[in-house]
Design brief:
Helix content is about 35%, strand content about 20%. The protein is an alpha/beta fold and about 300 residues long.
Amino acid sequence: MKRLALALCALLLPCAATQAASPGYQPMDNPVGPKAWWWDSSWWDEGRIPVPTNHKVESRWIEYQNGDTAVPAMIARPADGKKYPAVLYQHGRRGLDDLIQAQVKRLAARGFVVLAPDVFSGRFIEKLPIEHDYAIETDTAAGVDVLLALPEVSTTQACFVSQTRGGYITLKAATTHGKQHNGIACYVSYYPHMQDPNAPEPMQVYRYAPEADKLDIPVLIFIGDQEQYQRRRSIETAVQSLQEAGKDARLVVYPGVGRGFDFRPAHVRSLADDLAAQDALMRATHFINANLAKHAK
């Protein structure tokens, strides 16, 4: 039995070495050292930590029309009556449930007017759908004009923020439905589905949606290093393609977490989830403010 085990090891080791050395997809990691994009000299050299902006939040619900469809939407904003930059938050397969509504409020607490369309309810789509209804992309696109028309908004452009399938919906709203530079100035997404959900399985694993290459607004994406392989690969290859084309695209990979780190419920939440979620929210806030500053009214 021992001889058989040794023989199997001898056969398998060359194969494993060959596979490890073979070229192809390699997961992306955050760069290391003082020249990395994430390096903060004021913290390292002077001990200063950025202070987050915090606002008490108020929320309300509206409906807006997209053709014959009435789209319900949540609006969350600081409860001080002042004007703030515009953000459209697009939910993913979970729908706009209580956990995701809390995400919308956390974003608003940083100093934004956030419109969150409930595109599933507007078309009577059940939570966690398998198939993708392309019509909901137009509901999201229509929401941009509704958001920018709100009197409490301080900018002439908005930024998309999304998670899971919402990343694909906002990708299509920005490109296919023409909202980038026409209401949308930047794209932020948490572990987005970067492929058409209706595409066949090989496309889900080995390709990303061609619309990603059409993005020419700044892009910021967050994932965990435990992200599902078939999702992580399409996200990373899409970001790499944008970077190789000279576009402003950045991927942040958080160690020790997987998808859901931003909204995972309290009874299963880890310290790593909270650290990643808070850091991502701070980075998203800075990124959005930087890209909307030149679009102030």
